[in-house]
Amino acid sequence: MKFYILFLFSGFFIASVFAQDQDITLRVLGQSNYVEYAESNVAMISINESDIDKIDTLNDSIANLGFNSKLSKIEEFKNPNKVQFKIEDEDISRFDQLLVWFSDLQINVEKIYFRIPEHRFEEEDKNAILALNNANSQAKIIANHLGYKVYKILNIDDETTYAHPVYDDFDFDSETGVLMLRLLELLGGNSLFKTESLDPIRNGGYSLWVTYRLTMK
């Protein structure tokens, strides 16, 4: 006797079952989620060449407030009549004061964003363990519901960009491997390397499929 079952529980987890005789093969999607936080706030401003003295006034105010960073000129800005600057700081309360000064001095704000660090791939092992634990919990719930118990794990399928045999010979800890990993993520449109964000946090997740053998209790 053979039968297939597909489980979708309120959008939280997915599992498929193949049964033959007394044993059941169960495939579960395990997931873990994480949050990465912005390190600093960034403002890009521009000013007419004729009003460049306002930058000196702004620099004095910045120094008096005790900012860790200073205005830096953006050389590649191509407008011949304007000058563009950038400033970055970790303290949001002081950054709000910056915006007040920009307004008072009638300095044009071109762009404001949060700087989020590139994703730390050394944390992926921890995320993988959490995803596996998540799959194990789901497998036990499903097995118990069917009157079975988890006998063993048959297979773990890591759902990542580079989980493919063609990349087996790459040492992703080497300089070449890191460059290859970055290229793969960028080609895939992955946001993990993007450092500019309109939000102060970046939500991410790690997924893997785990196949189990279940036996009757």
Automatic annotation (TrEMBL):
It comes from the Bacteria. Residues 1-19 form the signal peptide. Keywords: Signal. This is DUF541 domain-containing protein. It comes from Aquimarina litoralis.
